[in-house]
Amino acid sequence: MKSVPVVSNLTSTGVVGYNSNSYTIMFPALPALKTLGNIGIKRQSAVFEKRSIVRTSTINEVFTITAENHNLDECKQYEEEKSKDVYRKIATETNVEIEVSISKNMNLTFLVRGKKVNVDQAKDKIIASFQTQQITRTINVAKEHHGKLMGKKGVVRKNIEIRTGSRIHIPSIKNTSEIINVTGTRNSTSKAIKELEEIILKLKNISEKEILIDQRHHGAMIGVKGIKVKQFQETFNVKITFPSLDEAKNNLVKIRGLKDDVDKAFQSISELAKALDESLKFPKLGAGNKVVINASKSNVAFKRRLLL
């Protein structure tokens, strides 16, 4: 166990000596007690030893800061020296003696010596210094999820940083690293990592389903400027991808999102596609035919309206 040099602000008080000969001259022995014969009771001579009770106001307080609760590293000499400066300042402010030991597993054990009120203050200050200490924690996230954690124009990352008070560094697209760094206090980094992990958990539950829909129905389902498909996506919280116009005779439509949302969207779109297929069986009635899609309900209704 490596011991950090003692930081001390206590002054030692010397013990004044005395001469035993001068003491016996100034304070001669008392005469022995006599027997009280007139009462008929013999009282033995008593020897009283006056024991001086030494009271001290100095106490020792020992406590440990575990490795996961501090940012010291055997390779970070600068961080270690900076921490020593903090302890010296605390010792000076509270008038105590502080000794720090670092174990092999990087736990820090503190011995604080002084008056109780000062020791309590010093301990609180030491613990507070670790709570406000800037640390960097890392999480390993599959590269495919980095984009979602960043968000469009970094909005997802920025919102997490604002809510937690931490700083999040996500590697660029060109960087193949899967390590994400989170910097801040222990409390802020814990909150940020929790939010990131919640997003990652959802991303791991992402599901995708494919459905064949006659390309002749794609326009009706997409709507003018994509308004219909946007309603679907907002209602079911999924992403729906139709083939481009250049892909002739491609009937494959993809639905992507959380598994439960994808299942609901798939069922609703299947019902709509079936209704649209039925509409092809009716004779053409001219421009008066209109398809109305109501996406406000879980079961999307298809109506064929005849306009005279």
TrEMBL record:
What keywords appear on the UniProt entry? Repeat, RNA-binding
Please give the name of this protein.
Answer: Vigilin-like
Transmembrane regions: none
Q: Which PANTHER family match?
A: KH DOMAIN CONTAINING RNA BINDING PROTEIN
Pfam families from the UniProt entry: KH_1, KH_Vigilin
Provide the taxonomic classification: Eukaryota, Metazoa, Ecdysozoa, Arthropoda, Hexapoda
Which molecular-function annotations from GO does this UniProt entry contain?
RNA binding
UniProt xrefs under SUPFAM superfamilies? Eukaryotic type KH-domain (KH-domain type I)
Residues of the K Homology domain: 133-201, 205-274
GO terms for biological process, alphabetical? regulation of gene expression
InterPro entries, sorted: KH_dom, KH_dom_type_1, KH_dom_type_1_sf, KH_Vigilin_N
